[in-house]
Design goal:
The protein has two helices and four strands; from the N terminus they run E-H-E-E-H-E. With 103 residues, it is an alpha+beta fold. It has one domain: 2-Layer Sandwich (Alpha-Beta Plaits), CATH 3.30.70. Strands 2-3-1-4 form a four-stranded antiparallel β-sheet, covered by helices on one side. The radius of gyration is 14 Å and the shape is elongated. It comes from Zobellella aerophila. This is YqfO family protein.
């Protein structure tokens, strides 16, 4: 199992989650579409070569985002990350993938 964590603007939250859940990620036992969400503030500054969804090159941006955490089976993690990248509005979405221990 893996834990997938990603950050997404609130306006695109449901569509990105839906894309990731469609791969089978977020299943715990007899439950699916399981996740935990935390709201916060993200910041970034697009460099000159960037094509930002929000903001302009060279300008620091701060935006309300949602941190989404969910589990994903080994066999599905690559597909889940690919779906995340495809559905996410950012050119470079921020995400983490951690292997989980089996206790």
């Amino acid at each position: 199992m893996y834990k997938l964590v990603f950050f997404v603007p609130d306006a695109q939250l449901e569509s990105v989650k839906e894309a990731v859940f469609a791969t089978g990620a977020g299943k715990i036992g007899d439950y699916d579409r399981c996740c935990f969400e935390t709201r916060g503030m993200g910041q970034f500054r697009p460099l000159v070569s960037a094509r930002p969804f929000i903001g302009r090159a060279g300008q620091l941006e701060r935006i309300k985002e949602v941190r989404v955490e969910l589990v994903c089976e080994d066999a599905l993690i690559r597909e889940a990350v690919a779906a995340l990248r495809k559905a996410h509005p950012y050119e470079e979405p921020a995400f983490d993938v951690w292997p989980l221990s089996d206790f």
